[in-house]
């Protein structure tokens, strides 16, 4: 198995966590977003979307991190990332999607670059934009966790799964932009428990060989 | 089953298509986004995220349309929205996520309102923003479809599934903002085939009782 990622890409970090939780070995390839290596002809041949990450398994290249997380869970079922019943699965997926469909798409590097390049956002404007969507999304995450009645040691019950895998990298990004996170105590308690696990701790951005 | 949606919400349209494909009966509730009804205390009790759509099944309320689509497919398997094998499933989910994680989150009403309210984007600026992300996302969708070798009459093979369900509402929105779509012939051929099916045609925004 091969993973193409970038240390600071939170979608890449999701996959590093997932592969560690499943205990799967893989070869790492480092694709620099600031250098634009994700738009090189070679990378586009592998991933026509020109986005990170890409996972190669059995000679097939897969894009879109949520799709890859589901692929890993279906192909390597232990430990599972989702509960057994459709209702529980929907709740976990919905939490993951608050991060993957409501926060991260608005705050990733290509959006921030577009705001600053085309729309002349200053650094302060960019940070204000970033913090707006973190506050909006984390409020939704916290409210959904609180209402579910299923949050235990982790987002759903007592084992880390799809929602935790998406949450933790988003917290890292939020902290990088100095976003206040005190208003989300249930969410942050889950985050802290995740970080006590090796699969989340050892895969964090700063420990990656391409980190600077 | 009950569906809370809004005629012009493309995530709501995804669910109308899905329920029609599965042949499931449901009661409709209309929640006006322009009137802010999605932020009313009653709606927030049902969906703490304050987003559309919400599906209620067996007394449980579900949010996030992609999670709901998977829930419907797991709970009501025929006809399936995903292929049988993990590799095919990953490809279909990745296409759906180009729409749900790369295009729609940047162009939905709450983002456009934030751009115009807080950042004083003019109507022309807003439309330029909108068209930028449509062009970016549809180029990714077209390139991925072309590279997959699996596109047939629909996004993957000869039956409509998760990717088609996400694609069609996004085309409707793109047309509403007069986005040129000539550069995406494979994508648009799939769109046209979808629209020849009753499940896609009869559920379109303009036929909804809350349309204006």
UniProtKB/TrEMBL annotation, chains A, B:
Pfam families: GST_C_2, GST_N_2. GO terms for cellular component: cytoplasm. CDD domains: GST_C_Zeta, GST_N_Zeta. This is Maleylacetoacetate isomerase. Residues 1-80 form the GST N-terminal domain. Transmembrane segments: none annotated. Residues 85-212 form the GST C-terminal domain. It comes from Tistlia consotensis USBA 355. Keywords: Isomerase. The lineage of its organism: Bacteria, Pseudomonadati, Pseudomonadota, Alphaproteobacteria, Rhodospirillales. One of its GO terms (biological process) is L-phenylalanine catabolic process. Belongs to the GST superfamily. Zeta family. One of its GO terms (molecular function) is glutathione transferase activity. InterPro entries: Glutathione-S-Trfase_C-like, Glutathione-S-Trfase_C_sf, Glutathione_S-Trfase, Glutathione_S-Trfase_N, GST_Zeta, GST_Zeta_C, GST_Zeta_N, Thioredoxin-like_sf. PANTHER family: GLUTATHIONE S-TRANSFERASE YFCF, MALEYLACETOACETATE ISOMERASE. Gene3D superfamilies: 1.20.1050.10, Glutaredoxin.
């Amino acid at each position: 198995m091969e993973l193409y990622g970038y240390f600071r890409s939170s979608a890449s970090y999701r996959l590093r966590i997932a592969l560690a939780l499943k205990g799967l070995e893989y070869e790492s390839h480092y694709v620099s977003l600031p250098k634009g290596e994700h738009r090189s002809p070679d990378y586009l041949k592998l991933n026509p979307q020109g986005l990170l990450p890409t996972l190669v398994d059995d000679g097939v290249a897969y894009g879109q991190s949520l799709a890859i997380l589901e692929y890993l869970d279906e192909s390597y079922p232990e430990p599972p990332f989702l509960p057994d019943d459709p209702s529980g699965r929907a709740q976990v997926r919905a939490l993951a999607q608050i991060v993957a469909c409501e926060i991260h798409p608005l705050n990733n590097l290509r959006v921030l670059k577009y705001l600053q390049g085309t729309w002349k956002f200053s650094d302060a404007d960019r940070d204000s934009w970033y913090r707006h969507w973190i506050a909006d999304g984390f409020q939704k995450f916290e409210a959904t966790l609180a209402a579910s009645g299923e949050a235990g040691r982790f987002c759903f019950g007592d084992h880390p799964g799809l929602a935790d895998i998406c949450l933790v990298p988003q917290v890292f990004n939020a902290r990088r932009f100095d976003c206040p996170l005190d208003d989300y105590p249930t969410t942050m308690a889950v985050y802290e428990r995740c970080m006590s696990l090796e699969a989340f701790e050892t895969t964090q951005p700063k420990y990656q060989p391409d980190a600077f």
